[in-house]
Amino acid sequence: MKSLQKPLVLSMLSALAVMSGTSNAAPADGVYRATAQGMGGPLEVTVRVEGGRMAAVEVDASRETPGYGLEAGPEVAKRIAVAHSLEVDGVSGATVTSQAVKAAAEDAMREAGLLEARAARTLKPGEYRGRARGGKSDVEALVRVASDGSIEVLDVKTGDTPYLSDTAVREVVRAVTTQKSLSVDAVTGATLTSRGVTGAIADALEQAGADLAAWRKVPPKVEKTRGEALDADVVVVGGGAAGMLAALSAKTDGSLRPEKANDLKVVLLETKGYLGGDLTVCGGYVASYSGTPLNDRTGHSIDGKTVVEATLAMKSPEVAKMLNQDLAARVVDASGPAMAILMQEGWRVVPEDATRGLVLSPWGKDGFLHYTVARTSDPATGYRSGDSGYDTTSGSPAMASTLADIVRRAGVDVRLETSATDVTATKDKVEAVEVSDAKQVYRINAKAVVLATGYSGLDPESIKRFYPSLEGVIRTGGAGVTSFAPKWVADHGGEIALNPASSTMLGYDAVLGIDGPESALYLTTAAPWVNARGERFMSEADNPYRYGVGEPDAKGVRSMWIEPGKGRPIGEVLKQPGKRAWMIFDANSPANAQKAHLAAAGLCVEADTLPELARRAGLPEDTFVKTVERYNTDAAAGGDTVFGAPASGMTPVLKAPFIAVRVSAVNTIANAAVHVADDFTILMGPEGSNARRIEGLFGAGGAIGNAITNSGLGAHNATAIGSGALAGAEAAKYAERN
């Protein structure tokens, strides 16, 4: 199992000559450090000089993405050391990390005297258009350089997810121009777009003759000041669907109507640079169990009791043990009326989004629970996720942004890129929230606090405390989620609600996740899969669980379908080193249509021979070649002699060029949560265990484990809406009493 300790590469060079371009004076022995902005934050490179020569290069890439920058940082440092030069190739799919290592290494080497001091460069006045890769598209930046050397970013174009990318463009451009540095913080939740913006500006500046190494130096850290305390009636921590509903409900006495706003001071804190949380990347799905125009269109409604029964029929003992059935049913029943009001107030969900949904459950006579679900369309294209493959964005950003507009209209004090660092309580009664933003830390005295911090994260601490078996699994979605609520309860002596099951499935990485047309490669193709040892580990003939959406009926309503599948590749992938595998294709494969896109993300390599493919993928050459050759021989002979796959379920790898595509175990929801009472007050243990109540502290959404039924696409959004509306109303009543 891969260690999560700091990855430091130490390249010992016992007799490395001083790099070309140095001064005549021998460099002074010592340790020299410099930083540059990586993908996940500042990245530090250390150069050690002994006997006037460079003896070692180290890089701390611990903040970089596992499977990408985390490994790429040490690799680039190694290449610099071995080549005795900064002119080395970066690592495919980790461009930002590669550039950061080289920029920091150059600064450290200049400070050590291994390179000559930079000659001052003057920017050439003019307008320059730069380009770099963002999250799902290229980012273009038009930069004007004035005669005095000052710069102005005139325009930025990106095809990345609307709403999320808007914030990234605005904040990154502001930071680059004011700090005069490319090493600025990314907008949490929009890291790739942020890095695309800085990359495009860097490309433009390079055309103008800029010294990019100087521009990539990390600005001096500004120490946060202690701000004045703020008084509030209700503070909601977390600005996803549950948090927005809790804040809106508290501000409107449960009516959810902005025109009925009360006089309470309601503050909503969100770590990211935008409101919406997972609602922004949920594919536009939200379950509508009853009480909305969506149900009128499908002609199908179910109540909370039915949803709870179907959930229990799935026979998860952990869920059955923790679930407060009456409270869970109330949450489901509250979601529909809340959604109907939001639709009237301008939330972008319309009756035409209605779809007949279903989820596997032994409760149903046909093995399914049937319900109504909205598939919200993309406002620009009209596309709905599921029309031709799952798409995490489609209508999601529009759902999030219009809900955020309703919250702001009600007069909620929204504070973005602002994190709660602690909740203080005395004698089991909430008192305040400790807060940190980019410039200061401060305290918000509060009568009531709602923790709507989402499902637990896959940050290193959460994995260590709650999910050690998920080490190495990539989190897709849920950016910035760090399990605040369950950590707080555990840190204060409480017992959390822990469901070992989690939504771990096949996918690619934190960006591509599980969606898009490229997902068809691992869902439908029967190509050979190999692990990091170059060995096959299962029969690839059986498809995994699949679903889709059928053609519209006479009323124009579509219905989902589910094919349970016989294979369990995710279970097998989880057993492999690094919880990753490579799918192997040849020139006749449909993978060719996706290879450029996947290669740009560092997920695909191509070669004219199998040995070369193994080398490029980092696989043991001899073992890999023998594995593929045996697979091809078995396919020609009529069947798999290793795992029993029939020839009809095998796709031989025969025609060059050959392609290897990396697939990984990814996670969308991890289930460490807290317990709540019937009024959504957080308990320090399970109900019925005489667990202490923390008066004035409430829970909502994925942060609470004993009141949430997540059965099917969009269910988590519905229960977030229902629980947020109920918890916010309870918090307002408590604040008014106190």
UniProtKB/TrEMBL annotation:
<keyword id="KW-0732">Signal</keyword>
<feature type="domain" description="FMN-binding">
    <location>
        <begin position="135"/>
        <end position="208"/>
    </location>
</feature>
<comment type="similarity">
    <text>Belongs to the FAD-dependent oxidoreductase 2 family. FRD/SDH subfamily.</text>
</comment>
<dbReference type="InterPro" id="IPR050315">
    <property type="entry name" value="FAD-oxidoreductase_2"/>
</dbReference>
<dbReference type="InterPro" id="IPR027477">
    <property type="entry name" value="Succ_DH/fumarate_Rdtase_cat_sf"/>
</dbReference>
<dbReference type="GO" id="GO:0016020">
    <property type="term" value="C:membrane"/>
</dbReference>
<feature type="signal peptide">
    <location>
        <begin position="1"/>
        <end position="25"/>
    </location>
</feature>
<protein>
    <recommendedName>
        <fullName>FMN-binding domain-containing protein</fullName>
    </recommendedName>
</protein>
<dbReference type="InterPro" id="IPR036188">
    <property type="entry name" value="FAD/NAD-bd_sf"/>
</dbReference>
<dbReference type="InterPro" id="IPR003953">
    <property type="entry name" value="FAD-dep_OxRdtase_2_FAD-bd"/>
</dbReference>
<keyword id="KW-0560">Oxidoreductase</keyword>
<dbReference type="Pfam" id="PF00890">
    <property type="entry name" value="FAD_binding_2"/>
</dbReference>
<dbReference type="InterPro" id="IPR007329">
    <property type="entry name" value="FMN-bd"/>
</dbReference>
<dbReference type="GO" id="GO:0016491">
    <property type="term" value="F:oxidoreductase activity"/>
</dbReference>
<dbReference type="GO" id="GO:0010181">
    <property type="term" value="F:FMN binding"/>
</dbReference>
<dbReference type="Pfam" id="PF04205">
    <property type="entry name" value="FMN_bind"/>
</dbReference>
<keyword id="KW-0274">FAD</keyword>
<feature type="domain" description="FMN-binding">
    <location>
        <begin position="38"/>
        <end position="112"/>
    </location>
</feature>
<keyword id="KW-0285">Flavoprotein</keyword>
